[in-house]
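Justification of computing resources. Each target in the renewal requires a structure prediction run like the one illustrated here; the chain below, 193 residues long, is used simply to show the kind of job we budget for.
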Amino acid sequence: MQKFVNLPKQPTKHTFNTEVMKKNDKKLVLIGKISGAFSTQGQVKIACLCESIQTFRILNQVIIEGYSTAIKLNILSTFKKTLIVRLPYVQTREQARELTGNSIFCFREDLPTTKENEYYYSDLEKCKVLDTEGNVVGQVTAVLNYGAGDILEIKKVEGLQKTLLPFTKDLVPEVDINSKTITLKKYALVDTV
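Resulting structure tokens:
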């Protein structure tokens, strides 16, 4: 378990302590956002950005903007993709409301291992994009999902053009997370945004 010092008596809005990342030299993954206050006793609502809300239950610690330490969430209830949580040092509705919009992160190593051909978005971001001959043609800048499937946003090497590409086995036959590369089928990068 990670240990940090200087836990503030009252966390503040959008003052994420980048020293937490530097001290640990570990990759952080965005897993949620505080979406508002809940009740008059300082509880907050968290919008889950993970595939399953159960991810929050298995994590021993998270890092929240405004806190300078990793904390264990006290989950009171869940509904669909929303959690109701009590946070340390947050005792009033006003304190909880101040945290609205703050991001919640976990350490990448604390997430469950993925099955074959399953990837975390954060593992795909910043991967080099190769063509079938091994030439670098771009870099993944984001992974998006608007409900119909995952989409890679790729910044091409030539110019500032970006393109969106469905993340399917047909168009992206090979992904190597260890070398941070993905290989595209020939002619996959045609349209730009």
